[in-house]
Amino acid sequence: xxxxxxxxxLQDYLEAILNLSANGEPARVTDIAAVLNLAKASVTQALGVxxxxxxxxxxxxxxxxxxxxxxxxxxxxxxxxxxILNFLVEVLRVDPLVAEQDACLLEHSVSSQTMEKLVQFLxxxxxxxSRMREE
Amino acid sequence: xxxxxxxxxLQDYLEAILNLSANGEPARVTDIAAVLNLAKASVTQALGVxxxxxxxxxxxxxxxxxxxxxxxxxxxxxxxxxxILNFLVEVLRVDPLVAEQDACLLEHSVSSQTMEKLVQFLxxxxxxxSRMREE
DNA sequence: GTAGGAAGTTAGGCATGCCTAACACAAAGG
DNA sequence: CCTTTGTGTTAGGCATGCCTAACTTCCTAC
Lengths: 135, 135
Known about the structure:
- The structure is a homodimer of 135-residue chains.
- Chain A is mostly helical and 135 residues long.
- Chain A contains 6 helices and 2 strands.
- Chain A has helices at residues 8-22, 29-36, 40-52, 68-91, 96-106, 112-127; strands spanning 56-58, 64-66.
- The first copy, chain A, has a two-stranded antiparallel sheet with strand order 1-2.
- The longest helix of chain A has 24 residues, at 68-91.
- Chain A is elongated.
- Chain A binds chain B through residues 88, 91-95, 98-99, 101-102, 105-106, 108-111, 113-114, 117-118, 121, 124, and chain B through 88, 91-95, 98-99, 101-102, 105-106, 108-111, 113-114, 117-118, 121, 134.
- The structure holds a DNA duplex (30 and 30 nucleotides).
């Protein structure tokens, strides 16, 4: 329960698994490798670590599933990603493709406090007027 | 001249050296190690790499200096740091200490485009009106 | 059933980046 | 001088995270 030291890399695996299983797909090693653009062997290795930490369940040669704990963590990571992406695209007007890449990296470097502040900022400037004029 | 692959870690060394030499200090291995909170041996090693890449000049047992190229790169890195810090503190109102830590990490993950957009945003919302109306 | 190919794993290797321990050098004081 | 103290380097080790190559397992189609 302690704030498990889940590296940026492992967070990426969790996020990928969440996205895959959200799409109905059962999250196989090959799919994860494809999404993350890594060798399958690397995925197998990472899954071993994630399983040790109780974040993933994975029988040999079987599909991969998030545990409850892993799911919660993955959702957190994905939220970060989306908040940051939203900010980059909607506020800064960064090109969506670039923003997507940036979000992938930034999501691992932003403190919780900054994330909160970012959410607050978006609530102020987004909901208040999703089309707020700038002319 | 090509976009040298200078890792985040090496960028930190450059930034530290720039900050130290800006303070009059001659940037010694010990100082760099202290600033970055690393072992001196690690600094020596990194300096070797930086020297190979022509970013730093460093005679055995002597002080460390940035080359022209290294200086330019270090300034770029430092600028990124300051822009991000400024944004976090002035716009998001993140606690300065937390913001400082975040900036150290974020400066390595943000694309050039996002940096530009961030600068534009700050120019709009900072200089134009440090008290911009939000009512 | 059995031969494919696809999926998954294992083994071994490599780069980065950090560490500690031990050694070499330097500069200053007695 | 020569010893002491701090600075710098070298050597060796370790963790992470990736890779390729070779092997095993699975599944499907014949």
